[in-house]
Amino acid sequence: MGQHDIDPENLPYHPSKLERKEYIGIGEFLSLDMRTGIIDDVQEFPEMRKPSYKIRVDFGPIVGRLWSSAQITNYSRSQLIGRMVVAAINLGEKTLPTGFVSQFLVLGALDADGTVRLLEVPDGTLPGSTVA
């Protein structure tokens, strides 16, 4: 499965339809750099085929601010600004057909229909904290 699709009729992400993934080992998991960050800018991204935003997230003093494209338009821009998120920041940059460079992947759980629900982070967590 690559990019997800939103499909309210077929519910492709219903837990009863999801196969278990292969074992990867703890070393591969620990090589993933997952951090917390605060969304500080959200821009419309109408050029994308699927409804998306451009989001900028502040990952604290070491990583700084990075940009990504995210299919999270089920949230309003005002619901996103100031929200703490979890992201994978070392997957490499991806240049989209529009020329926009996506630098991280924001993490969320997929509803059965494919709608993204962003992961919640406890109050008091600092931007740039590693996720273990």
> So what's the overall shape?
globular
What is the CATH architecture descriptor of the domain at 34-118? Beta Barrel
| Rg from Cα | 15 Å
Give the termini separation.
24 Å
The CATH superfamily of the domain at 34-118 is: Nucleic acid-binding proteins
CATH topology of the domain at 34-118: OB fold (Dihydrolipoamide Acetyltransferase, E2P)
Helix content: under 10%
Strand content: 25-35%
| Helix-strand makeup class | mainly beta
Stretches where pLDDT is under 50 for at least 5 consecutive residues are none
Oligomer: single chain
Strand order of the largest sheet: 3-2-1-4-7
CATH class type of the domain at 34-118:
Mainly Beta
State mean pLDDT (0 to 100 scale): 93
Summarize the biggest pleated sheet.
Answer: 5 strands, antiparallel
| Secondary-structure element pattern, one letter each | HEEHEHEEEEEE
Fold blueprint:
Elements: H1 26-30, E1 34-44, E2 53-58, H2 60-63, E3 65-70, H3 77-80, E4 84-88, E5 94-95, E6 101-102, E7 105-106, E8 108-110, E9 116-118
Antiparallel strand pairs: 1-2, 1-4, 2-3, 4-7, 5-6, 8-9
